[in-house]
Structures are given as structure tokens and as C-alpha cells.
Amino acid sequence: MSLEAEEMSLVDHLTELRRRLIYVLIVFVAGLVLGLFVAKPIYLYLISADVAQGFILHAFSFWDGIGMYMKIAMAVSLVFSVPFIVFQLWAFISPGLRPVERSAALRYVPYVFVLFIAGIAFAYYIVFPMALSFTISITRNMGLEETYGIAEYFEFLFSLVIPLALLFELPLIVMFLTKLRVLNPLRLRKMRRYAYFALVFIAVVITPPDFISDFLVTIPLLVLYEFSVFLSAFVYRRQLAEDAKREARYVKAD
């Protein structure tokens, strides 16, 4: 291939990438607009959590109310954007994939949304109440006067919910990479100790600085990793069976 052809190919790829990014930006902005319309009922629902009852949320800045609405709108937009981003990523790389890989990748896209919602539900209904209850109990045991800001409340909430929702995509990513033969269960088991260390580190970083929150997040992440290994083994066994059938057909043909 000539240098001019390679340059044209690179330009075509960059043009395609820009087009995909514009699509993602349009969907994100549309989700943001939708999020602003539904921000108030979501806000009322989020502050109605049982563990949040008993204290009044304050605004310490003129921007706190607007910032809270924008955070909720961005979270809503993210729910719709993540599956679309994955689809656009698939559309961008699919020309370089084999038909079987292209078909497999497309089948995984809907599950991105399902796992993201499952992660949000787990983080909000299980991890967040326990973490908030623990931090409030420590504050009260120390005899401190409670004055909570609306911005801090939602920062605490989203710092737990959003990262956990994204981490719930781990099994799907592992299955996809196994399907592409980038990963396999043997490799995942060999790197288990390093993966555990990375997951524990992530749990400590995304959670408030207390042992209970770290523990509540770490255990599900480790379970997710082991579940990912199980799914990888399932896909890998099917690949081996398909390879064996293909090899048997070639032997008979000879």
C-alpha cells in the first residue's frame, strides 16, 4: 500500500471516529435535556431515602441547587449514553472484526444497559444506605452538630453509585474479550491476585474513608470477578468444542 493510500485510510478512520463522537455527543446532550425535565422528581425520590430522614439539607452556595440538578441530569444522560457509546464503539471497530466476532459483539450491547441498571440499583439500595448510616452514626457518636449540604449529599451518593454501576460491566467485558480470544479463564485465574489487588484499590478509592464502605464494595467486586471467570470458562469451552468440530471436518475432508 502506498503512503498516499495509508494517509487516506488514516484520514477516513479519523473522519469516521469524529462522526461517531458527534453521535455520542448528540445523544448525551439529548439525555441531559431529558434529565433536566425529570430532575425534580428524581431529586425528591433520592432525598426520601429512609437513612436520609431526620436531617435538613442546606445550600451553602448560590450554585448548589443548579449543580444538584445538573448532576442528576448527567446521571440520567449517562444511563442512556453508556449503551449507545458501546454500540458506536462496536460500529467503529466492527469492520476489522470477523463476521462471528461482529455478531457476538452486537449481541452483548443490550446487556450493557441491563448491567448498568443493576449496578445502580445495588449501589443505591444496598451500599449507599449502609455507608451513609455508618458515617452518620460516627458523626453523632462524636457529638458533632449535623449540618449537611445538598451538594455534599449528592457528591457522596454519586461517588458510590456511578463507579459501581460502571464496574458492573466487568463480566460483559470479560466475556467479549474471551470471545475475541484475548482472554481465557486460565489467564484470568493466573492474574487473580493482581486483579484482587486492583479491585480492592478501586473500592478504597471510590468509597468514603471507612472500613465498612470499603468492605461493602470490595466483596461484590470480587464476586463479580469470579463470576467473570465463570462466564469466561463457559465461552472458552464452547470455543474449544467449535474448534474440535472444525478440526474434525478438516480431517474428514483430507
From TrEMBL:
Family annotation (InterPro entries): Sec-indep_translocase_CS (IPR019820), TatC (IPR002033)
Keywords: Cell membrane, Membrane, Protein transport, Translocation, Transmembrane, Transmembrane helix, Transport
Transport listed as a keyword: yes
Membrane topology label: Multi-pass membrane protein
Record field: transmembrane: 21-46, 66-90, 111-136, 156-182, 194-212, 218-236
UniProt main location, coarse: membrane
UniProt-annotated location(s): Cell membrane; Membrane
Pfam family, one: TatC
Source taxon at top rank: Bacteria
PANTHER family, alphabetized: SEC-INDEPENDENT PROTEIN TRANSLOCASE PROTEIN TATC (PTHR30371), SEC-INDEPENDENT PROTEIN TRANSLOCASE PROTEIN TATC, CHLOROPLASTIC-RELATED (PTHR30371:SF0)
Recorded family membership: Belongs to the TatC family.
Subunit structure: Forms a complex with TatA.
NCBIfam families named in the record: tatC
Function noted in UniProt: Part of the twin-arginine translocation (Tat) system that transports large folded proteins containing a characteristic twin-arginine motif in their signal peptide across membranes.
The protein's name in its UniProt record: Sec-independent protein translocase protein TatC
Annotated organism of origin: Paenibacillus rhizoplanae
Originating gene: tatC
